[in-house]
Request: fold
Amino acid sequence: MRTVRPLAVVTGASSGIGRELAGTFADHGFDLIVCAEDAALADAARELRGRGADVTAVRADLATYDGVEQLYAAVAATRRPVAAAALNAGVGIGGAFVDNDLADEARVIDVNVSSTVHLAKRLLPGMVDAGGGRLLITSSLVATTPGSFQAVYNASKSFLQSFAQALANELKDTGVTVTALMPGATRTPFFHRAGMDDTRLGRMTAKDDPARVAEEGFEALMRGRHKAVVGSVRSKALGAATKVLPDRLKAAGQRFLSEPRPRRRRRPPRGPRR
Reply:
């Protein structure tokens, strides 16, 4: 008879940090409920089953209330306690705030903020009732930086850092821990999907390894740390620097990295010489 394994929930599990987090949970003996909105989730689920985990894949759009409820219904249907959850789903959009579509900016808030609050509200009461559980919320180093040309995204990550640390304090006597995961720029599809291919940040090749980010995040979660700056030495040094740099300098640095290159105007073709 197979020993009952602990159950973990991971969102944004089809690629990037979320997929690596799911794999790390599988490698450490967890069964999984994984969620993403894209077709690549099926491939991720097959890989995770190959690593020994029992996997339920839920393809849902967490930007919607019904999508979060669809995921939670799958969790409840297992009738198993959730030992750990990584609320990692996130989207971004680059560009000037005044130029971006309102619907695109609102979707950043819906996925990054609203779905995280919604899912935490569904999962945490069960953890508290069970007297234990671990919740990881993926914020970012940009949570501490005014987000020039990523204004809504950075603000959403600031919310998530504050939310995670507030929950950690509220739940300190319950046996439930909450960890804010703070990665730097990581080698994932995020920048392409955010329309940032023409920025210095998007083109930067020296991004962190998502596997390293996930492994360090998992370790921090298991240790019950309230906040974890993870990744390369460069990212950790940046995390230390943002504690002391004034906001105007951080905003200028974000602008340097995230402002799209100005498009060159095409010169009209020359006519025949007279």
The two ends are 91 Å apart (CA to CA). The chain has one domain: 7-258. The chain has a mean pLDDT of 93.
